[in-house]
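Exercise 3.2. Students should predict the tertiary structure of the chain below and write it as structure tokens, then compare their answer with the key that follows.

Predict this chain's 3D structure.
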Amino acid sequence: MVLLFFFVIFIAEFNVQIDFDMLLVAQNTTDYCMRHHLKE
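Answer key:
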């Protein structure tokens, strides 16, 4: 599941024309998932 978010960020960084807000959402989601995963 975590790899999916890293993949989304990779695609976002690869495609320069992607919406910047979408990139921020992907990063925030990954950060949240990482924190939640570390708590467990």
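Discussion points: The chain has one domain: 2-39. The helical segments are 2-14, 20-39.
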